[in-house]
Design a protein that fits this description.
The C terminus is likely disordered. By secondary structure, the protein is α+β, with helices and mostly antiparallel strands.
Length: 712
């Protein structure tokens, strides 16, 4: 009897406990005090304030040049602002049709001129009185006021440069008599009708390449020439004495320029080892007057680069939008991305005050963009931070105290990462999120799906809090992806977590066993993570952010929403137990990777040294394969990770971490990884350097053949 009473009491006690738990879980939340909620406006992008149709008569123009395709004739190859008249713009297309435009009249050009050379470059003189255009083999100088042709000095290339006082003009000599007959000519153009040759600078005999780029520093001290083999020579402009010779990996140098503030020199072109692939383009920068290499920026195709008048910003033009992010604005101080324009362009030019940017490209349209204050205030730009968006449909009101809830949630996420990093011996290192002037989380309010009108292309993570039910969230996500498919120009910041940029080299079948793809680097991009109203659970956000931090190790699946109320109760009880946090804990490999992540070490330089990754096979048999990877990076290698791709019934491809190895800043190292599963056919080796730059190389395992090794 006594035992029965005890059993009955225990049953009653269990029922009571369960009832209490159910009550506290299912009861409606207590009424909250409504606090004033303020939201920030999403940053705007540069806006088009004027458009000119340069190619309105393109078919007629194209027929005047034998062998010139319609697309080449239509393409705007060069655009420029007048340095003295902010309303005056000049543009030239592929067949040499030059048009002058007034920014206040977009219908008709002021004047139409003709330049006989193809694929030309155009520029006003620093005084604004002359307009010069050079194609391959010809250079023409016009008087801007009258449109009269003044002179045609000798040249063999489309590149030329004015001195800042407008008294000298540098052109590239005709090299058809021999490579060492080519070089640079300097002309006195104080009297444009009777220009005279001041000096000729010949190529040093050790240089094996033709001249293809030239520029004069704004202080008139140096003149630099770039050559097709990647060599750059710098001379004293007054004495023509050689000052510096620099070797680069560039092939067919596209541009060579000094910054207006004389702090930097940049050169750009195609990489000698992979010049057939447009995505290898970028630029290399040197600091002056030390001539020390500041670093490289490799972000897809960079056709040309121009500096802002104050030299604090540079713009890379890109006529292959799918390689990179359109026209991109960078900080010259550290290479950090500032913004981008959703357009393809072959050339760009700043207005003299730096507030306007003109672009021209393959569509034959000249566009004038108004930069926003956030782009011009470079000192206030922060990179590699988490930014928060509160998404709510137009007809909905914000939930009570939602800003406070979001602030508390993101701080809990931040604390978790700090706890995990400390647990693995890396100190309380964590990510940063954007805050307002009061130190609270800065939250942007969005009432519709973000479009390309918003500037979300900094190297940040945009964490979107979707404050409505799951069904509406599905609609939101569906609409988002529909918009992505219908508007490719938006893809770069709405969908992709990372952008692959530069192949180093292409390797074919190694020893008949391994095929390797190109090495890739991650430039970062506007990244989106999502948290629904029922998922403001900090653990879900931890999991979502982990992958946005480029941590690819997937150990667990996200918990699914449970529709059954009873099961949901017990699931809620389970979620508060200690073991429920295991799926968001960091592994040693993950914590070690994050130790050098840009998001855990913000505001690092974006300049990068080009990495290399080689692979060899040490051992292959039926059950086990031993691979050797040799990595090199002048920035120092922090960690190497090997991922393999498995096939499963539910998921056709499943990326799995095979192993990692810390290298503690070594500039070159060789590591070995063993793959025991014979079913694994593909893999990826990932490397992060000491500055948080990431590169990867994919490979596939193929059947051994008796055929000799081949290059693809």
């Amino acid at each position: 009897m006594k035992n029965k009473k005890i059993g009955l009491l225990l049953v009653i006690l269990v029922i009571a406990v369960v009832g209490i738990v159910v009550y506290f879980i299912s009861r409606p939340p207590p009424p909250q005090e409504l606090l004033p909620q303020t939201f920030a406006e999403l940053p705007g992008r540069p806006k088009v304030i004027a458009e000119f149709n340069h190619s309105a008569t393109i078919i007629k123009d194209a027929l005047s040049f034998e062998g010139l395709s319609l697309e080449s004739a239509k393409t705007i190859y060069s655009v420029t602002f007048s340095p003295i008249d902010p309303s005056l713009i000049a543009s030239v297309n592929g067949n040499g049709t030059v048009k002058l435009w007034n920014i206040n009249n977009t219908k008709e050009p002021i004047r139409i001129l003709r330049q006989p050379g193809i694929f030309p470059v155009i520029s006003f003189s620093p005084t604004g009185k002359l307009l010069t255009c050079a194609g391959y083999g010809t250079l023409t100088i016009w008087d801007v006021a009258s449109g009269t042709k003044i002179n045609s000095p000798e040249t063999s290339h489309r590149q030329f440069a004015f001195s800042s006082d407008g008294q000298k003009l540098a052109t590239i000599r005709d090299g058809r008599k021999g490579i060492h007959e080519a070089g640079v000519k300097i002309w006195d153009i104080r009297n444009p009708k009777k220009i005279t040759e001041i000096a000729t600078i010949n190529i040093p005999h050790a240089t094996k390449g033709s001249t293809c780029a030239v520029d004069i520093s704004s202080d008139g001290k140096w003149i630099a020439a770039g050559y097709s083999n990647g060599t750059i020579h710098v001379w004293d402009l007054q004495t023509q004495q050689l000052v510096k010779s620099i070797e680069t990996p560039l092939y067919l140098m596209d541009y060579l320029k000094f910054s207006p503030n004389n702090k930097y020199m940049v050169a750009g072109g195609r990489d000698q080892e992979g010049y057939s692939n447009y995505s290898v383009k970028g630029y290399i920068m040197w600091e002056l007057p030390s001539w020390q290499r500041k670093g490289e920026v490799l972000r897809g195709n960079v056709e040309n680069l121009v500096f802002s008048p104050d030299g604090k910003m540079c713009v890379g033009t890109n006529d292959w939008y799918h390689y990179g992010r359109g026209v991109e604005l960078w900080s010259t101080a550290n290479g950090a991305p500032i913004s981008s324009l959703p357009t393809e362009a072959t050339d760009a030019s700043f207005s003299q005050d730096g507030n306007l940017l003109v672009t021209g490209g393959k569509d034959g349209i000249v566009r004038v963009w108004k930069l926003t204050q956030s782009q011009l205030d470079l000192d206030k730009v922060r990179n590699d931070v988490v930014r928060l968006i509160y998404y709510l449909p137009k007809d909905k009101e914000p939930s009570p105290n939602i800003t406070q809830k979001i602030d508390e949630t993101i701080r809990e996420v931040q604390k978790h990462y700090a706890d995990e990093m400390e647990r693995h011996g890396f100190g309380r290192k964590t990510f940063t999120f954007e805050t307002d002037e009061n130190g609270k989380a800065k939250i942007y309010r969005k009432k519709e799906i973000p479009t390309r009108a918003h500037d979300l292309q900094l190297n940040d993570i945009w964490l979107v809090f979707v404050d409505h039910d799951n069904d509406l969230q599905s609609v939101f996500i569906d609409n988002l992806f529909k918009r992505l498919k219908s508007a490719p120009a938006e893809r770069s910041y709405l969908y992709f977590d990372k952008t692959f940029t530069f192949p180093i080299r292409r390797i074919g079948i190694i020893k008949g066993k391994i095929g390797m793809y190109d090495i890739k680097g991650f430039t970062g991009d506007g990244r989106f993570a999502y948290a629904t109203k029922k998922g403001f659970d900090w653990r879900l956000i931890v999991y979502s952010l982990k992958h946005k931090f480029d941590v690819l190790h997937r150990k667990h699946h996200l918990p699914k929403y449970e529709p059954n109320a009873v099961k949901r109760v017990f699931k809620g009880i389970n979620s508060i137990m200690p073991w429920s946090k295991s799926w968001v804990k960091l592994s040693k490999c993950e914590a070690e990777w994050l130790d050098r992540s840009r998001f855990f070490n913000p505001n690092q330089s974006f300049f990068d040294k080009r990495p290399e990754i080689e692979m060899d096979v040490l051992k292959t048999d039926t059950d086990s394969r031993l691979f050797q990877f040799t990595a090199a990076d002048e920035d120092g290698i922090h960690q190497l990770q090997l991922f393999v791709t498995e096939k499963s019934e539910k998921h056709y491809r499943l990326h799995k971490l095979q192993g990692c190895q810390a290298l503690n800043g070594k500039k070159k190292a060789t590591v070995e990884f063993e793959i025991a599963d014979a079913n694994i056919e593909e893999g990826e080796i990932r490397m992060i350097d000491m500055h948080g730059n990431i590169a990867s190389r994919e490979f596939r395992i193929i059947e051994k053949t008796s055929e000799p090794d081949k290059e693809p």
